[in-house]
Amino acid sequence: MLMNAIPILTEVLEALKEFYESGKEHVIxxxxxxxxxxxxxxxxxxxxxxxxxxxYSSKSQPAEWKETGxxxxxxxxxxxxxxxxxxxxxxxTDFPKLAAAQREDIKGSITLxxxxxxEVREHAPREGA
Length: 129
What we know:
Blueprint: H1 5-22, E1 26-29, H2 37-47, E2 53-56, E3 63-67, E4 73-79, E5 85-92, H3 103-123
């Protein structure tokens, strides 16, 4: 029985139009909605499959995002420690934000790269030696 597939797909369409016109991104939290297996199947059939899959390998919260056949629409799943879906989303964006590098991670990477570069410089052969 279909309950929410058509309203969800309509929301995706309207969000995609808004994203195209203004750049405003939108997230639909699928597992927070009453959705039947038939709803899920219809949504996935209509959106189709794209060519890009992003996998975030983490022991505590692994995640994956799949581009749909509709550019700008991504299906995301964040798993719990038992590898069960904890959060399911449909994201209307050019790239899923949770898959992007986070500022605090970049800050830590700056420090790490500085340390590695310092070590390389200390062990590199000296010019003219």
